[in-house]
Amino acid sequence: MASMTTPRLPFFPARARSAAAAFSSLSSSPLQCCPVKRTSFTNTNSAPLLFASRPGAPVADGWSADLNRRRASAMPVADSPLPAYSDPHALPLPLTSADLMESGGEGLKVAYQGFPGAYSESAAKKAYPHCQTVPCEHFDTAFQAVENCTVDRAVLPLENTLGGSIHRNYDLLLRHKLHIVGDVRLAVRHCLLANRGVKIGNLRSVMSHPQALAQCEHTLTELGIEQRQAVDDTAGAAKLVTEQMLQDTGAVASSLAAELYGLDILAENIQDEKENVTRFMMLARKPIVPQVDKPFKTSIVFSLEDWKPAQLLKALAVFALRDIDLTKIESRPHKKRPFRVADDTFSTPVKYFNYLFYVDLEASMADPKALKALGNLEEFAPFVRVLGSYPTDVSEV
């Protein structure tokens, strides 16, 4: 596939704690998680890896032999008690103005990745209808904009029904100290755009984001457009077609991009599969207060011991034993510990890839079952972090 360099526009410059420690009395008062550090794998360029820790647990690199022996016997149990916490830093924070912000987003600045007219901007407007949207050149820039208080929120894609997960954003969730406070689903309806007066028969090539091109591959071929040009953003492709007054090249982008950049829509809904939906996450500096009066989802990430068998089965069992459904499991390379070593069954130690596991639960951290499940998981998982507990988007797409 041919590619081309696009001009750059000016963009905005580029404490989570496992909820098992903060929501034990949530049913009686509105509380928030408070950041507490207990790290084993940190560096100066990334956010601390935060653990669902028990009081008295060692705060040191590595694990003591006694702790290893204790974890060796840990098993999923359905009635594990809730842990008690005496650390004053684990006490909940008071409500902030962000918690009381109207759902419409009045007064909010919301970052998204891409040029104006990108699908991410539409998702931001769906999440916060009255917000001020702020374009960012890269995903990392949007994360940083929230962390640095340049904006109040970010709305970024997590997964698509055709293209799967956006792995970059999963990795960035660990690098930055932000919380998922909601998700929003957006139906992606691709359009073929061109300058005024250009017909489909005049087009020899089309440009767009690689995922958009892949999602329209068969339709574009049927239209007789064989050449593809990959660029960073769908709306950026539309902008480039306009700025360069291209007569033989179109763009695959949204109808909003056509309106913003003065292009004609030559064909609508050109994606090969009509059910094309992207799920976006809403990010904030502080977590929201979990509730049980509406559908909630909780996103976590954890690692497992690298020398014990059936660890993943045990991890999933802590939720199955409590009838908690899992809606997504995503594995990503454990960059700080990329390999795990098999036991001594073989004469030569065998190294396998090591992973972090991202899991979405159909449960709120206000539900005692979810708290007990995470407390149980922490008994044998060396690292557990809650990325957010938030309302599930149940709107029509």
UniProtKB/TrEMBL annotation:
PROSITE patterns: PREPHENATE_DEHYDR_1, PREPHENATE_DEHYDR_2, PREPHENATE_DEHYDR_3. Keywords: Amino-acid biosynthesis, Aromatic amino acid biosynthesis, Lyase, Phenylalanine biosynthesis. The keyword Secreted does not apply. GO terms for cellular component: chloroplast. InterPro entries: ACT-like_dom_sf, Preph_deHydtase, Preph_deHydtase_CS. One of its GO terms (molecular function) is arogenate dehydratase activity. Pathway: Amino-acid biosynthesis. GO terms for biological process: L-phenylalanine biosynthetic process. Residues 109-285 form the Prephenate dehydratase domain. Gene3D superfamilies: 3.30.70.260, Periplasmic binding protein-like II (3.40.190.10). It comes from the Eukaryota. Pfam families: PDT. This is Prephenate dehydratase domain-containing protein.
